[in-house]
Amino acid sequence: MATVYDIADYLITLCSSKDQSDVITHLKLQKLIYYSQGLSLNVLERPLFNNHIEAWTHGPVCPDIYQAYKKSKDNIITPNFSLDEISSKFTHVELNVLNAIDIYFCGFSASKLCELSHQDKACRHIYNLNLLYPKIPLNLIKESCKTRILKLSNLTIDIEFEDGLYIVSIPNTPVAFGESKIKETAIKEALETSFVYITYLIETGQFTSDCLHKSNELIN
């Protein structure tokens, strides 16, 4: 298993290889690490790294990454490796997960990622406990990332009512379908199958920026 430091190196190198909007600061890196763990739990059904994540004032934080990068403060973190060098530490499927994180989240600013993570169930639940730097359970990280991915994905829901049933489909996700007498249940079923399709695209390396919501900066 690659370490959380390897993951940080890869994300820094990958995002920094693009335009200025994708530069990495310590705060932004922490949120990318958090969502990387969540996406791995959904796609690979296992953690991407063993280090724990805590709920801090500015959202999810991996304490080990904090210790490694705290001196950078709000400055841009520059990569120390080439993509080829750091890629060799990951399996093909792990790289697919991290590349999806790049597509979904690297275009956001650190402040926007902080805002999004605060809205996630993982942080909202933990903050309500009024504990100092509590660990966020993996199941909450997994659930929160799933919800966030669905919100950021380019999904259009079509709803029909026929013979007492709500029939829900998502045109740009071919396998997504839900059917129930209860509208909310049909929508949930369609979203569940849609997420299975998204994770399949990520796992197989077929996920592209076309899957990303065109107005993701407005998603909450």
Q: What topology emerges from the helices and strands here?
A:
Blueprint: H1 4-16, H2 26-43, E1 54-56, E2 59-61, H3 63-69, H4 83-87, H5 92-105, H6 110-119, H7 121-127, H8 138-152, E3 158-162, E4 165-169, E5 177-180, H9 183-203
Antiparallel strand pairs: 1-2, 3-4, 4-5
Helix pairs in contact: 2-5, 2-6, 2-8
Largest sheet: 3 strands, antiparallel
How many alpha or pi helices? 9
Structural class: mainly alpha
Mean pLDDT: 87
Radius of gyration: 18 Å
- Ranges where pLDDT stays below 50 over 5 or more residues in a row are 214-220
Beta-strand residue percentage:
5-15%
Count of extended strands: 5
Question: In terms of quaternary structure, what is this?
Answer: single chain
Helix-strand sequence: HHEEHHHHHHEEEH
- Tell me the distance between the termini: 33 Å
Q: Would you kindly provide a brief summary of this structure?
A:
The protein is mainly alpha-helical and 220 residues long. Helix content is 50%, strand content 9%.
